[in-house]
Amino acid sequence: MSKKNGHHKTISSFSSLTQFLEKGCKEKKDWMIGTEHEKFGYIKETLKPLPYDGTPSITSILMGLKDRYGWKPLTENGNLVGLKKKGAQVTLEPGGQLELSGAPLDSIHATCAEASRHLKEVKSVAEKIGVGFIGLGASPDWRHNEMPRMPKQRYKLM
């Protein structure tokens, strides 16, 4: 259903669906591209998932990025749950993954430079505290009960 003049209009055909979708399209001159990159942190010594708190931890990675590279903190109920800088964000996913949600940029080359810079920053902080990262959206080995819980309200529902 689409909304027209405060009333719902039923999408009843392929052409009404395409017309509805076309109304939301941007002109080509306004197109942008962004990066989304997830990675799991793990403790190199044990190969166990990186917990939210403690040393080493996801919090220590986020604090290192904040302190060394000027990222601004994002908090929820007093918990550090992400960072932001220049239109980009580093956020926590439910299983403890760090995700770069890149800024909207003009080209694939600009997103490549942004992602490369981000990965260098994460690696430089992680190496100092014995942490590694694997760039996957799902854990290849850890069981559900081994995964750390992130202190974000919406993840209680997941």
Q: What about the largest sheet?
A: 7 strands, antiparallel
Instruction: Give me the oligomer status.
Output: single chain
**What's the total count of β strands?**
9
Q: What order do the SSEs take from the amino end to the carboxyl end, as H and E?
A: EEHEEHEEEEHE
Residue runs with pLDDT of under 50 for 5 or more positions: none
- Helical segment count: 3
Classification by helices and strands: alpha+beta
Beta strand %: 25-35%
What is Rg?
20 Å
Distance between the termini: 27 Å
Q: Note the overall shape.
A: globular
Mean pLDDT: 87
The percent range for helix content is: 25-40%
Blueprint of the fold:
Layout: E1 2-4, E2 7-9, H1 14-23, E3 36-43, E4 48-49, H2 58-69, E5 72-76, E6 79-85, E7 88-92, E8 98-101, H3 108-128, E9 131-134
Helix pairs in contact: 2-3
Please tell me about this protein's structure.
It contains three helices and nine strands. With 158 residues, the chain is of the alpha+beta class. The strands form two sheets. Strands 3, 4, 5, 6, 7, 8 and 9 form a seven-stranded antiparallel β-sheet that branches. A two-stranded antiparallel sheet has the order 1-2. It is globular and about 60 Å long. The two termini are 27 Å apart. The mean pLDDT is 87.
